[in-house]
Design a protein that fits this description.
Helix content is 38%, strand content 15%. Helix 2 crosses helix 6. It has eight helices and six strands, in the order ααβαααβββαβαβα. A hairpin with a 5-residue loop joins strand 3 and strand 4 (146-148). It has helices at 22-37, 52-62, 82-103, 106-112, 123-126, 152-169, 184-189, 222-225, and strands at residues 74-79, 129-136, 138-140, 146-148, 173-177, 195-204. It has a domain at 57-216: NADH Oxidase (3-Layer(aba) Sandwich), CATH 3.40.109.
Length: 229
């Protein structure tokens, strides 16, 4: 990626260039919108396996995201080991229990009622894969000297969006989960202190009885989420 000795600007011709007509752009944009409209946060999974190659390829897609100074300050820990998933579930549910028993406050709990969530997180053990996203707050050269990463939350958020889209494009369902605090994930997954866990993503196929809350289909219209000048 870079080193202390080599920090030169070396421009190369744009490797990949799209040259679509206006009509082709509209068609491509509409097609992607149709694809992403079929993405849902799923809490009910079956135990159908998902090949590791699919997960690896989707993580590679996440790794193509833009980042501050191209430092790529992310790490994705993919877990299929049943014992480790059970450990993560147990520790996550411990934090979730505190959340739902008063830690969140009445307003937050009220806001979650239409979603139908609670402290029980079966998806963490039933889904064949969990992907834990870590944000690397700083990096290290080979001699242990630290270097600063830039725009870390923004960069990791973009990469996570790429990952969710890639997983959906591969025909998989996902659910983002953010127990708080999440420092137990560093211990469970042997990640360094420089990394901060940002979320757990459950990945797999929906169960035959899978449902989604009706409110999840209510999306704000274009005029509420955008302005054109």
């Amino acid at each position: 990626m870079f080193s202390r000795e080599t920090l030169n600007y070396d421009p190369i011709p744009l490797p990949d260039r799209s040259d679509l007509t206006d009509a082709q752009m509209v068609k491509a944009a509409s097609g992607f919108l149709d694809l992403m409209r079929r993405r849902h946060s799923v809490r009910d999974y079956c135990d159908r396996p998902v090949p590791r190659e699919v997960i690896e390829t989707c993580i590679r897609t996440a790794g193509t995201a833009p980042s501050g100074a191209n430092h790529q300050p992310w790490h994705f820990a993919a877990i299929s080991n049943p014992e480790l998933k059970q450990r993560i579930r147990a520790e996550a549910e411990e934090e979730e229990k505190k959340f739902y028993e008063g830690g969140a406050g009445d307003e937050w709990i009220k806001a979650l009622e239409p979603i139908g969530t609670n402290a029980v997180k079966e998806h963490l053990t039933i889904a064949p894969w969990l992907i834990v996203v870590f944000a690397q707050r700083w990096g290290q050269f080979e001699d242990g000297t630290r270097y600063k990463n830039y725009y870390v939350p923004e960069s990791v958020n973009i990469a996570t969006g790429f990952l969710l889209a890639a997983l959906h494009n591969a025909g998989l369902c996902t659910l983002t989960h953010t127990p708080n605090p999440m420092r137990f994930l560093n211990t469970a997954l042997d990640r360094p202190a420089s990394e901060k866990p940002t979320m757990i993503i459950a990945v797999g196929h929906p169960s035959e009885a899978a449902t989604v809350p009706s409110v999840a289909k209510q999306k704000k219209p274009l005029d509420e989420i955008s302005s054109f000048f």
